[in-house]
User: What shape does this take?
Amino acid sequence: MGEESVEKVGLIRLMSWLGLLTGGLYRLGISTRLALYRRGWLPVRRLPFPVISVGNLTVGGSGKTPHVALIAAYFKKKGIRVVVLSRGYGGEKSRSGAVIATDREIVGTVEEGGEEPYWLAEHLPGVPVIIGRNRYRSGMLAFERFQAQLAVLDDGYQHLALARDMNILLLPAHRPFGEGGLLPIGTLREPESQIKRADLLVITQAEMVPEENRPALQTRIQARRPQTPLFFSSHEPRSLWRFPGREPQPLSWLKDKRVLAFCGLARPESFAHSLRAAGAEVARLVPFRDHYGYREKDLRRLARQAEEAEAAAVVTTEKDALKLPDWLGGPPLFVLQIEVVLPDPEFWRRMDSVLPVFSVPSR
Assistant: This one.
């Protein structure tokens, strides 16, 4: 074995050892935190109205935010004064907290709240969206200022400091328990065993798994938690508009069109799948890291890649469009709107079961 090969083997062994060490420390930290909450040594505070939490076990890629939008819109339609509470990851005011949207208008910016809360504000007119690390404080603000009757907690599965009345755990269909084990080596935020905290399980992005494979997937998950109700949801393309002017384009325009797709998602392949479901031919998929901040040079490179791929258009997601500078030319840029569909009426009956536990606060 040459000297260079020996050095490479040594480096690999060192990285493996460091990975095991940091993974062990992470597991110890998670286990300690869970034990402190379980024994009541860390406080859990309750808001004066019900809380529905939507979250996952893995890092990104399960569609938390669109599921939050779906649930919040359902309760708003029923006349419930619902509010969305989010940490506001990546937002300038995540630490201090801020109102991104009131029950009348959007008052914050993408920079202040992060792209997910701002996306929620755009898609839930009339629903207050409040960010901040301290979700109890955000909830009390919602109660005092907007007379909130119910909160939907975005990415709340690990936020144990706030009591919830319904704990929904999302499991992506193609990798329900992530890959590679716990962080930092794998993608799990906490051990698989913590599925036990869930009141409802939702297998998301079911469209990524062939119909004939779904029963086996359901059996695999229910083997871990057979008594917890389990549902399927899917992501479906809904509309198309041109960037930056939001000029609507028929979704059918994508049929047989050769496109270059780009996105900053934890699971970019799901976006390519949605484009193919709309009839497009994905000539190339360009992934960026989650929450990526686009620059002009990125768009110039994308326009060049689209021309090289002989693409008729460039397509991205709504979340990515929130952080784009002006499109600099080349093939036209379109934004694909994707919605979550969860048709099982039993799921919505479970949502309704939360409502009787509170009395409607008077204005």
About this structure: Residues 236-340 form a domain with the Rossmann fold fold (CATH 3.40.50). The radius of gyration is 22 Å.
